[in-house]
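Entry 12.
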Amino acid sequence: MEFKDPFLATSIGSFPHYDEKEVFHLIQREFPDIPFLPQFPKRSFFEGMIAQYSEGFPALKVDATEKRLWVDTSSGFEDEVERFFQLIETKDLSPFRISEDYARGLLILKDLAQEDIKKRIKYVKVQVTGPITFGLSLTDQERKPIFFDSTLREILIHHLSFKAQWLEKTIHDFLPEIPTILFFDEPVLSAIGSAFSGLNQEEVIFSLNECFKAVKGLKGIHCCGNTDWSLLLSTKLDILSFDAYGYLENLSLFPKELEAFLKKGGILAWGIVPTSEEILKEDAQSLLKRFEKGVETLTKEGIDPILLTRAILTPSCGMGSLSIELAERVCDLTAEVSKRLRGMSSSLIIKP
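Predicted 3D structure (tokens):
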């Protein structure tokens, strides 16, 4: 899918709010070009990063009081596995729906489908927890991460792939002509290369690529920490979403891989607006200068400056842990930086 709209703004997903209507209005005001489906983890345990996409997983146990999920393989698991793979064979998406109890943010689609709002939209963005983060966070009854069990890993890849397909279909039911962007959120990938990760890189790449196969629109990875960027850039992603505020220098250590990704049509989603107390030190002008400095850093490493116009602007991470006041400031500044970049000549931003 060709990307024609540089420097548009979108966001990562989570908000600290309890009232979804407040957030819907905020999204429509600040992110009219690439609105997104918000998440409300403070309001409900079921909107947390793992719980939100766990609905329907085989042998899943839920203790909402203790805010705990796990997979029980101790009894009847083989029957659950058989039923799951029979279900996969039918290719029916309805068993993978995400109910409103798990995602009140889906209600925004009714608002976005209004004619006066819809005419501004260029993409709709949604996010799914990635297979590595999901598989290392969800455990069995012995508290062993399910990613390390080959059967459960295969199940989770299918499970998340069908969740992604269901979300894309649901968006197109409301907005049939508008393309989608789907990020697989992978904060756990910041552990790759550490002594504690225990991850096989081939399994990581395979798991991500299998999930990407399910996505018809633009697909990306969001990682809000430092990681082995060469590994992510070797996958079949269209968009790399990264914390440009904190980790631009780290990404610049992989210029060959980055330029190859951009030459294939890849897009960088610059998380240039911090989602921490650092936001109090910044304004639109300081963040604009930070973006320009980031571009300068990459061009000094040999990246073709023209390729860096393939850019989306975002906050550095989700905002679920912030105060409402700070989250709204993050949104305001992200929108303002995007507006200023789009109002400038590309030659002023991207200097050869």
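Annotation: The chain has a mean pLDDT of 94. The chain has 13 helices and nine strands.
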